[in-house]
Predict the structure.
Amino acid sequence: MPEPQLVPRVERHAEAVWHGSSARGSGVLSAGSSGAFGGLEYSEPSRIAAPDGQTSPEELLAAAHAACFSMSLAAELTRAKAPPERLSVRATTVLDEVPGAAGHRIVESIVTVRARAGVERGAFDEVVRAADEGCPFSNLIKASGTVTIDAKLDEGGTADGD
Amino acid sequence: MPEPQLVPRVERHAEAVWHGSSARGSGVLSAGSSGAFGGLEYSEPSRIAAPDGQTSPEELLAAAHAACFSMSLAAELTRAKAPPERLSVRATTVLDEVPGAAGHRIVESIVTVRARAGVERGAFDEVVRAADEGCPFSNLIKASGTVTIDAKLDEGGTADGD
């Protein structure tokens, strides 16, 4: 099979169906492009109080940023001839009130990375910086908020066991 | 049970685990806050070529925007004393090259809404505008791109059958 070619423009869609008032209603999400998920419930209580088994827009953005960052970091490590054995990325989306804005805003994404890859610490820090600069979701969030990154190599991740 | 109170700051997190090079590796996502999803696969081919049953950061953002918009619209309709019977929201995330930017960017979200609610067309248009202004994800995307909205009342959606 040929390698996939990077096309300039990519579109992906998803569907939400909501019933009822904002406080007492609820909705269901499905992945329109891939079919990878469906029947994912969300509601106002799950969003602003306890998640209680239901997802939220903020949790989905956290998943999107974690996925995007991991792919961007894998690409930079591959470019540095050190494709990762394993990357573990957690993203935390922060929704908060902002002075002067009506309603809440996405103010921050906190990214925690643990990497197992054959690269030294100094090179790794540079690779993480490049991964952040190239990740479309880091750029999306930085346009109105902050991206905070804590990235470390796993012990035993480099060739000399450091 | 008491109504949930809107707290100023909300955090939601998710996890990604990636193995291998950018082109041939793949990752798995899970919902860290709610547990609502897990084992969701993603890869570079699914992101830039055919989705093929795997999700992508862009599809997850589409789900987040669709969910956020539906909740914001439900809130505005509830405020207008016309809580919706049903809202159907599709969001399409567009990833594209941008002149001067390294790599791709999220350039647009296209939102299509069909609403069944007891509100007249003129009032509905105003409610949709307010929903967009109040939706944190519309604001996130507008900080660096465009949000395009096509919103219609279902036939039979208003009290007079219009």
